[in-house]
TrEMBL record:
EC number, UniProt record: 2.1.1.173, 2.1.1.264
Homology family: Belongs to the methyltransferase superfamily. RlmKL family.
Start and end residues of each THUMP domain: 50-160
Gene: rlmKL
TM regions (residue ranges): none
Disulfide bond listed as a keyword: no
Protein name as catalogued: Ribosomal RNA large subunit methyltransferase K/L
Primary location group: cytoplasm
Protein role: Specifically methylates the guanine in position 2445 (m2G2445) and the guanine in position 2069 (m7G2069) of 23S rRNA.
GO terms for MF: 23S rRNA (guanine(2445)-N(2))-methyltransferase activity
Length: 713
């Protein structure tokens, strides 16, 4: 039965969060009454003509739901009564198909999938009791039923859009784009594009110098040429809904086609220009543009610094989304933002600007004065739109150099000057959270910097911490004379068990550093740690000086750096034990780097085993043992896990059992709260070696590790 086109109906139009006010204004223009802004959507009253017009023309909505019933729904009984209050035969044929979208939970329904199936059964029972048949389920249904539960209340409606309203038809559904079309439309509206179109300017330009998928340009063109998004979809309305008024819909559709034709007659007023350095992106954007027969546009593929001047329409809007992700290196982004700001500032004063980016993006590096900022949610990502009424750059560019950090780095370098000049190593620490506001550790590996960001305290505002990190990343290359492209940033959290050894990425890039004549392969990108613990440098050198003619055991050997020093010091035998095959291979690479790979007498052995179990079963003796266990580890012997504080007595006893009578055990660990048990002191001759084991570049942090030389009494 066809619906009464003039009867007032209740609607809910969904949209991305934070653009609800814009959607409310849009729906009001289409004839909505009693508009009420909600969370990620707008409720409105309007007849069927209004609903159809909104589905055809809305640039901001995602879905259109015709509300059929609203009431209590705290349990199945209340929800069933609400479902039964609807005459479903007015909306669906008995032999038709349906789909149920279910949101929320109540006292009886604790799973949305079950809720959808249960609602389908209730609707089906109504049909079966009257017709003996019931509708079937389909992924391409005649009717989509939507049920929402919230705090004991329920609303039931039918979704009348055939496809999501954000889809325009110019983009393949499988194509990934940085933002949905309706979000791009909202950003354009906030940027003032509609106001610019309504102005009396003779010519108007829309420019995107970093156009990517071209979404801003296409959406801007649809607005300028008065093209309804619904004209571009193969299907917009649920035509198999029994209340569908095809005459009304066709009339509105024809009207929209006429407006599109009229819009094209005014096309010469507009200039559209998209540019990107990525040739594939420009090609894809052009293909989408042409797929909906838009007028000719200007497309270029070049770097921002090579961007030509626009053809200078009377006025215009330059809008773009500069690159940024949470793991972006702000140092690498700085030239892009700087070039973007310079190009925007070169435009005539009649032009306006807008930049859309994630919240933490360093927009200040454009050196432009923004007028307003607006909050958006791009999928799950908090983002902002910055608008620029005047494209003016600051007289003094934003350097974002942290002077206090730069001064501290200079002070640290002066302290390390003699140490660096000696040339014993080109891998050392230059900064470790000396200033609490800059919570990073900075290590130099040859001509690279390895920067670790510590998690800020909960009392520190996340945005402030992010800004300080960006300031630090801009300060480091200038203060330390390092190429900005040779800075690797990692975020460090407290690690337990094997987490500290888990692979972080797949760059698989390594470089070689030197230390007291030894060469080591380090990897700054793929793991949390680099393959070389800088704070143990003095103890590795101690091994080199004391290993001649001795049998050496390196437990938890990691990448074998201590083993290398022992071998270079003339050890007769070096055994390296670790459970990780990856790190044992790395250790072999380090031996090869130092010309130690040829070993016909098996002087250098690499043993893959659980260190704790292997040591317990070991029946050999060693003159020097290097024991640097993790804070936590798995073990079959020691309950479920190894805890260095709880279990170090047993571990030391096992090591001392295989230590020769005149031998030395170097025991070290990085647990900051570690205390050596008095029982160890009573049983063995223990020398506290913490002070001697601390290198100059780690003196500021004496708790970085503990170290003891342990011998038999």
């Amino acid at each position: 039965m066809q619906a009464d086109a003039s009867a007032p109906l209740q609607w809910f139009f969904a949209c991305p969060q934070f653009i609800e006010p814009l959607l409310a204004d849009e729906l009001t223009r289409y004839g909505a009454e009693s508009v009420k802004i909600g969370h990620a959507g707008v409720q409105a009253t309007g007849d069927l003509r209004f609903g159809y017009r909104a589905m055809l023309w809305s640039r901001l909505a995602s879905r259109a739901t015709l509300q059929l019933a609203h009431g209590f729904g705290k349990d199945q009984t209340e929800l069933q009564a609400l479902i039964d209050s609807i005459d479903w035969q007015q909306h669906l044929r008995p032999e038709g198909t349906l789909k149920v979208r279910f949101f929320g939970l109540n006292d009886d329904i604790r799973n949305t999938q079950f809720g959808a199936q249960w609602v389908k059964d209730q609707i089906g029972d109504q049909f079966r009791s009257q017709h003996g048949v019931r509708p079937s389920v389909s992924n391409t249904p005649d009717l989509v039923v939507v049920v929402n539960l919230h705090k004991g209340n329920a609303s039931i409606g039918i979704e009348l859009n055939q496809h999501s309203l954000h889809q325009r038809g110019y983009r393949d559904l499988d194509t990934h784009a940085p933002m949905r079309e309706n979000l791009a439309a909202a950003v354009l509206i906030r940027a003032g594009w509609l106001d610019m179109l309504a102005s009396d300017a003779a010519t108007v330009a829309l420019l995107d110098p970093l156009c990517g998928a071209g979404t801003f340009l296409i959406e801007g063109a649809l607005m300028a040429l008065d093209i309804a998004p619904g004209l571009l979809r193969e299907q917009t309305i649920a035509e198999r809904w029994l209340g569908h008024d095809s005459t009304l819909w066709n009339g509105l559709y024809v009207e929209a086609e006429q407006r599109r034709s009229a819009g094209f007659t005014n096309a010469e007023r507009f200039e559209f220009w998209g540019n990107d350095s990525n040739a594939a992106a420009v090609m894809a954007a052009r293909a989408d543009w042409r797929s909906i027969d838009l007028p000719a546009a200007r497309w270029t593929q070049c770097d921002l610094k090579a961007m030509p001047a626009p053809t200078l329409a009377t006025t215009g809007l330059v809008i773009s989304s500069p690159p940024f992700t949470t793991d972006s290196n702000v140092v690498a982004l700085r030239p892009i933002y700087d070039a973007l700001g310079q190009w925007m500032a070169s435009l005539p004063e009649t032009y306006r600007g807008a930049l859309f980016a994630e919240n933490e993006a360093p927009i200040a590096l454009t050196n432009l004065f923004y007028s307003k900022e607006y909050r958006f949610l791009n999928s799950e990502t908090e983002s902002k739109l910055y608008t620029f009424d005047k494209l003016l750059q600051k007289e003094r560019p934003t350097a974002w150099i942290a002077e206090d950090l730069a001064n501290r780095l200079g002070k640290n370098l002066r302290k390390l000057k003699g140490f660096i000049k000696q040339g014993h190593t080109d891998a050392y620490r230059v900064y470790d959270m000396d200033i609490p506001e800059y919570a990073i550790a900075v290590d130099r590996y040859a001509d690279w910097l390895h920067v670790q960001e510590y998690a800020p305290p909960k009392t520190i505002d996340e945005k402030a911490a992010e800004q300080r990190l960006q300031q630090a990343l801009l300060t480091l290359p200038e203060s330390l004379g390092v190429d900005p492209k040779k800075i690797v940033l990692k975020q460090r959290r407290q690690q337990k068990g094997k987490n500290q050894y888990q692979k972080q990425g797949r760059a698989e890039q390594s470089l070689v550093v030197t230390e007291h004549g030894a060469r080591f392969k380090v990897n700054l990108t793929d793991y949390l740690d680099t393959g070389l613990f800088l704070d143990h440098r003095p103890m590795r050198y101690w091994l080199q000086q004391h290993a001649k003619g001795k049998k050496v055991l390196n437990l938890f050997c990691y990448t074998g750096t201590a083993s290398i020093h022992a071998a270079m010091g003339g050890a007769n035998r070096v055994d390296s034990v670790d459970m990780s095959a990856t790190y044992l291979e790395w250790a072999k690479d380090n031996f090869e780097l130092n010309g130690l790979q040829h070993d016909p007498y098996r002087r250098y052995r690499f043993i893959q085993a659980n260190v704790l179990d292997w040591l317990y079963d070991c029946d050999e003796y060693y003159d020097l043992i290097f024991l640097d266990p993790p804070t936590f580890s798995n073990s079959k012997r020691m309950q479920d896990t190894f805890d260095v504080q709880r279990d170090h007595i047993a571990l030391i006893n096992d090591a001392m059992r295989v230590l020769s009578p005149d031998g030395t055990l170097i025991f070290s660990n990085n647990f900051r709260k570690f205390k050596l048990d008095a029982q160890v002191d009573n049983q063995y001759a223990v020398q506290d070696y913490r002070k001697q084991s601390l290198p100059l570049d780690f003196e500021r942090d004496p708790k970085i590790h503990g170290c003891w030389l342990i011998r038999h009494k």
